[in-house]
Amino acid sequence: MMNEFSLLLLTTILYVVIGLLFFALSVFVVEKATHWSLHKEILDDENIAVGIMFWAIFLGIAIIIAAAIHG
Questions:
Q1: Percent of the chain as helix, strand, coil, to the nearest 5
Q2: Which of 17, 18, 31, 57 suits 68 as a labelling partner, its CA being 20 to 30 A distant?
Q3: Based on the structure, what is the number of domains in the chain?
């Protein structure tokens, strides 16, 4: 029973780490693909459209990661 729990916990932690790495990679790629600074546009200029765009990108990546995890 404990061995099965340990395996589930280990795989969950592994998927969390992989998901966070994909999110970090996606932020890096989108930041490099656009000619403006994400931090400046969202926080300094309060550009809501850019925030919504990044939210949609992250939601799409989350759906892809969830589908990959569930097979």
A1: 85, 0, 15
A2: 31
A3: 1
